[in-house]
Amino acid sequence: LGMVSRESDLFALGVCLYEMLTGRMPYEGPNFLAQKNQMLFPPATRVLASLPDSVDALFEKALAAKPEQRFHSAEEFVDGFLSALPG
C-alpha cells in the first residue's frame, strides 16, 4: 500500500518465514489485501503438523493486520521466534 516502516518489513519477514516453514504462502489470493486485513491464513500447525503450537502465536503477531500489533524491531521478532521453538 506504499507504506514503508519497520513493521511492514517485519511483516514481510513473517511472510517469508511462514513460507519457509510450511512451503506455502500465508495468503494465497485472489484478494490478498482482504485476506491480510481479516487475517485469513491457515495456522502454520494446520499446514505442517510437526511444528510446535507456539509457532502459531508467532505468526499471529508477525502477520497482524494492524502494524501497531506487529513486532516493532528485528530483535523483538527474533526473540519471538526463538521462544516459539521447543526446548
Would you kindly provide a written description of the structure presented here, covering whatever features stand out?
The model has no long low-confidence stretch (mean pLDDT 93). The protein has helices spanning 6-22, 32-37, 44-47, 54-62, 74-84. α4 (54-62) runs antiparallel to α5 (74-84). The protein is globular. With 87 residues, it is mainly α.
Keywords:
87 residues, mainly alpha, 5 helices, single chain
Major sheet description: none
Number of strands: 0
User: Which term fits the overall shape?
Assistant: globular
The chain-level structural class is: mainly alpha
Order of helices and strands: HHHHH
Average pLDDT metric: 93
Rg estimate, integer Å? 12 Å
The helix count comes to 5
Strand content: under 5%
Helix content class: 40-55%
The CA-CA distance between the termini, in Å, is 38 Å
Residue runs with pLDDT of under 50 for 5 or more positions? none
